[in-house]
Amino acid sequence: MKQSFFILHRRSGAFFLPAAFAAAALALASLLPASRADETCSSPYLARIEGQEEFLYVWTLGVEGMGDGADKLVTVDVKPGSRTYGKVIASVTVGGRHEAHHGGFTDDRRQLWLAGLESSTIFIFDVHTDPARPRLVKTIDDFARVTGGAVGPHGAYALPGRVLIPCLSNSTDRGGRTALVEFSNEGDFIATHWMPVKGASGVVGAEFADGYGYDARVLPRKNVMLSTSFTGWKNYTRNFGDLVQDAEAVKQMGNSMVLWDFHARQPRKVFHVPGAPLEIRWAWGEKRNHAFTATALTSRLWLCYEDANGEWQTKEVATIGGEGGVLPVDISLSADDRTLFVDCFGDGKCRVFDVSDPHRPREILEQQIGRQLNMVSQSWDGKRLYFSSSLLARWDKGGADNEQFVRAYGWDGRALAPTFELDFTALQLGRPHHMLFGSTKVGQ
Question: How far is CA 347 from the centre of its chain?
């Protein structure tokens, strides 16, 4: 790997979803009326916001000597016309630094589950009683023990009555071998599904299986789930500068995507997708059977699609930022499946692609957001985007390049126009990472 890439039901068995329920969930996801809103990357099983988002929840890494130094959930008012629009209105500390990473809601949207990537701790917040001021109600601090050795929870993804937690590592050697884990909405462990490894029986493409994990997303009407791969605890907790000098460590990065039988939770096919494929974004259209991912280390956009014979395939469809590597880390697909936003940590730019033909993406905009850039959250109507800056505590840039911000933009189909920004360093809040939407009005 060239350094240039870095510059810059309680049973433990399978859970079967009734076909009628899956069909209903699909219809809801693909035919939501315009009055419903949400992030475009949300689970299809998630209860939807009615109207525009009112709050932006920001899962934030603590910094030693800054404020209380702990990870925290920060609430930003994003309701138009509010006297506190674009301001922080609440902050809840969780005590200690756990490498705040990703999170997600339960299907009823009453709880927000947030993961600590380094400590393997799950923090569960009540966001229903008072959405403007979430309240920490439960902590899962024995994750490795109850899951049988999975560690490094990446986030939480809503399923009916439960959450799916993709992991990045294991408690035995803290390498990339890992699993997908399920908990009930009440916080009780249900099942662990280990990622396939090379030679896995009955799995097409098993020669490409590396056992690594990162993201997982579901397309219910096709009974398929995709998972991607990153790296293990030993790597993501290292100082970035040291890591890229260690040739053996750099080799321990994921190079696979796995297609699963969702209902049976069984891997069906493994694809060779070199360079650490990260976030997965399924298309929403009822006849659009494809998903995108971006490879962080090789700066490529990949398509996973169902071909004319009903077989699932993957292929590289675009280079992100030209040759040399810009470290794409997050992507957001618009609800009409026509526009893909790609955040690049290396150069701090957002690149926008026209993906109306998913096999032939075309870049239509390249815009500087900051000196470093990580997550992007997009409103359902495509008019608002929110960006955050922090990747990992030990991977963020230093000096003047260590900007820590949340920045909001409007999108008119041609350009991104800034609406507000928050300097999390000046506010003594820490390093903002994952962002999710909140509201006082939630439908079913």
Answer: 20
Q: Where are the domains of the chain?
A: 3-438
CA gyration radius, the chain = 20
Nearest CA to 195 among 249, 254, 143, 140? 254
* Cα angle: 288, vertex 302, 196; to 5 degrees: 95
Strand order in the sheet with 100-105: 100-105, 111-116, 121-126, 135-140
The region, left, alpha or beta by phi > 0 then psi within -120 to 50, assigned to residue 338 is alpha
Dihedral Cα 209, 213, 216, 221, nearest 10 deg = 10
Residue 358: both structure tokens together:
């998913």
- Give the Cα separation of 381 and 386 in Å (integer): 13
Distance CA 428, CA 133 (A): 19
d(CA 16, CA 10): 12
> What is the token pair recorded at 295?
């490879």
Q: What is the pLDDT along the chain (444 residues), one digit of tens a residue?
A: 333 333 333 333 333 344 444 444 444 444 444 456 789 999 999 999 999 999 999 999 999 999 999 999 999 999 999 999 999 999 999 999 999 999 999 999 999 999 999 999 999 999 999 999 999 999 999 999 999 999 999 999 999 999 999 999 999 999 999 999 999 999 999 999 999 999 999 999 999 999 999 999 999 999 999 999 999 999 999 999 999 899 999 999 999 999 999 999 999 999 999 999 999 999 999 999 999 999 999 999 999 999 999 999 999 999 999 777 899 999 999 999 999 999 999 999 999 999 999 999 999 999 999 999 999 999 999 999 999 999 999 999 999 999 999 999 999 999 999 999 999 999 999 999 999 999 999 986
Would you call 373 helix, strand, or coil by DSSP? coil
Report whether 289 contacts 283 (CB < 8 A).
yes
Give dist(CA 152, CA 207) in Å, integer: 25
Give the architecture-level CATH label for domain 3-438: 7 Propeller (2.130)
CA atoms within 13 A on the CB side of 407: 22
Beta partners for residue 333, in sequence order? 340
Cα–Cα dist 331/342, whole Å: 4
